[in-house]
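help with this.
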Amino acid sequence: MASFSRNDADRGLRAVRWPLRLTRLGMIAEAFVQSLWPLMTVCLFVLGALMLGLQDTIAIEAVWGLAVLAGVSALGALGYAFMRFRLPTREQAIARLDASLPGRPLQALLDTQTIGATDAASTAVWRAHQARMAARAAEAEPVPADLRVASRDPYALRYLAVLLFGIALLFGSIWRVGSVADMTPGGGGLAAGPVWEGWAESPRYTGRPTIYLNDIPEGALRVPVGSLITLRLYGEVGALTLSETVSGRTEVPPASDPAQDFTVVQDGTVTINGPGGRSWRVEVIPDSPPQIAVLEDPSASALGETTLPFEARDDYGVEAGEARFTLDLASVTRHHGLTIAPETRPDLIVPLPTPIAGDRRAFEENLIEDFSEHPWANLPVFVRLSALDGAEQTYETEPRAMVLPGRRFFDPVAAAVIEQRRDLLWSRENNKRISQILRAAAYLPEELFRNQTDALRLRKVIRQLETFATYGLSDDMQEDLAQEMWDLAIILEEGDLADAAERMRRAQERLNEAIRNGASDEEIAELMQELRRATDDYLQQMMRQAERQRQQNDENGGPQNENTMTMTQDDLQRMMDRIQELMEQGRMAEAQQALQELQQMMENMRVTQGQQGQGGQSPGEQAMEGLSETLREQQGLSDQAFRDLQEQFNPGAQAGESQGNEGRSGGQGRGQSHEGQSGQGEGNGEQPGQPQERGDGSAGDPRPGSEGSIADRQQALRDELRRQQGNLPGAGTPEGDAARDALDRAGRAMDGAEDALRNNDLAEAIDNQGQAMEALREGMRALGDMMAQQQQNQQPGQGTQQSDRRAENRDPLGRESGNSGADGDTGPLALNDDAYGRARELLDEIRRRSGETARPEEERNYLKRLLDRF
């Protein structure tokens, strides 16, 4: 054991000399703050009050009283400081630093051995103890000073003093402190003669600072219009006088009045006459009124939300704005319920949005509002935009004619209810007529309504209308009845449909109705998106139903039903893309025909479940469908892992969502398989072809959602991918090798995901699952390239059965015929962009010629018939 002497102890203390010095400095600062805070508070209060000019605004007696109070307070604070202040010693600093270390090593280094000093063993133990204490002391850090005085200042007077002093620094002047001498007998102010003080305060909305006139030399002075000039004249009355021509006041106070306040409204001069006086030539900075303008015509979404872009500007900033809508009665088509005089309604006023933060001097914004429920919806109106600035100046645009956008209803019954609601709000004298029309429309409700509840709601509205027609209709009753009619129309338009098939048919009907009625591009795009969502839900439902039917047929030994049309989800997606493309090109007739074909196909469709080895599919098509199913199931496993990861940080937040999505997104693992591909899942012993309904946790893994069950399903999916790799066609081709390499990467990523799931590392598992999905997509792209290459290399008579069927289904121009004899949309000619361009050019030429009045009438009629046809 190494020896430790007294010199070593001294060196240990020297090692902490800087932490010790800093600790002592902190203790000195602590002593100053805790003893001098009352004196500093009194000084800051006095300085802040003097810099703000408190002595100039109150009576001199009050000034002297406050001065005496401040002096007494200062003396008391000084006495408190002498009583409390103690300069900390070195020993106190050592004790504080030692208290912050474990075992008080500094005290141990200063101690001496009193017992057993002659015993060698005892001495060795003592030296070892001091060596450990020296090591601990070497880790010492300065102890922060405790500057808190909250216990001694319960009312936080020190903070009030700091706040007052800060305000004085911003808005006061240090030169005002010298004005106290003017109030003392024989003070410097009286000896120097009369003095003055002045300020020019700009309006707040300008953001310009206040000008202290004592610092401004004579000459030009530019201030914004509306600035407030304040002048204070001290000394003998009449020694200083004021003359000005900038306020335009009719009642002018005496020029010798010691307090002068006026507002600058025009150019002129301000002169202080007398000893030390000055004169300024004031130039007014004008304040221009705000400007506002509509940028373009308003647009409306399919649900009636209006977007009106506008721009506004002002030299200092726009404070507020509003849009005022007034009914353009002269432009209203006076028919049906609009033939009678309308009830008087106030203008529709909507505040305009302004930037919450940033510069308001020039900006562009959008007024976004939904006017669908207003009585003037879809009627002509005048709109005026107005802006207001900080000077209360306003600017209003010229009236702009427009149609107040509102929601369009494509369901005929809903549109009829909305029309009668408009007539009811137009005038309550239409009450009897509206009830008669609605009763006639609801004569055979089973032909109009999808359920009895909607029919009953309409009958209730009719009864209320008839009752109010007899006993009168108040304003509140009118509003309540209009709200009921609006709610009924919304239900008729959107429906309360829980069944996916009904929802899809409903979306098809709305889109078809929108095309017939010439809806806007935004409305058609939104309805098309709704059709896509409804079709996806319907396909999921059909897939589950077909799987259950297939399993029942397998169990009962019954034959498969082959009389229905077989389509894949990709086929439906291509058809909907084709419909949207036709609508974007303005070919509404063709889009409507394609939509009708889609509707007929969906009614007779059986979604394929990828039954491998049947239907004449090639090996490449079988592999492609298998990989697609694997990708969907991998996505489902990744979604389940993400939900479990969310559950760890927010328990219970994803419970409802997980229950609703687990079976749909493939979270069960490989719950279904293609025929001819069912294999034993390694690791869990389940047959991939067996049903694994896990919506209630009754089948499949007994612990739904647990990490172990996901790991088992991940292992089963990896085994299925390994089997698919063995059956992958295209060995030896560049595309086939690329597909195999991609699937190898996907397999390694799946192995990593399985290991991470078993280790409960969900974040790592999600990363590996994402890599596996990306590799699967690359493999599918390579496999598709290989299939396209093989199809191009096939000679006539040597293709697959499906290729032969496609060849037989082509017309003389090489296009694949669609259903019901219509031209298909996947052939080379149909998908040729040049063909579409030539067709558009031909139609444009026909339109141009049909509009030339110099051509014969027979030719123009023929061209118009061509346009109607195509």
Summary: Residues 697 and 704 are 6 Å apart (CA to CA). The chain is about 50% helix and 10% strand. The mean pLDDT is 75.
